Amino acid sequence: MKKTNRLFTCKNKCKLFNSIVLAGFCLIFSVTIMAQPAKGGKKISSDLFGLFFEDINYSADGGLYAELVQNRSFEYNPTENREWNPFSYWEYIAPGFSYGRISVETSAPIHPNNPHYLVLDVEHVGKEVKFVGISGIGLKNSGFEGMVVKANDKYNFSMFVRQLSKEPISFNISLQTQKGKVLAESKISTSSNDWTKYTASLIPTQSNDTASLVILATTEGKFAIDVVSLFPEKTFKNRPNGMRADLAQMLADMKPGFIRFPGGCLVHGDGLGNMYRWENTIGPIEQRKEQRNIWGYHQTAGLGYFEYFQFCEDIGAKPLPVLPAAVSCQNSGGTWQIGGTGQKALPIDEMQDYIQEVLDLIEWANGPVTSTWGAKRAAAGHPVPFNLQYVGIGNEDKITPEFEERFTMVSKAVKEKHPEITIVGTAGPFHSGEDFDKGWKIANDLNIPVVDEHYYTDPKWFISNQHRYDSYKRNAGEVYLGEYASWGNKMRNAISEATYMTALERNGDVVRMASYAPLLAKKNFTQWKTDMIFFDNVTICPTPNYFVQKMFSANQGDYYFDKVVVKDEKDINLAASCVQDSKTGDIILKLVNYNETSKPMKVNLGRFIKIAVEGEQAVLAGSADAENTFANTKNIVPAISVVKISKSFDYSAPGMSLTVIRIKTKN
Ligand code: AHR
Question: Taking the model in full, what pTM does it have?
Answer without folding.
Answer: 0.94
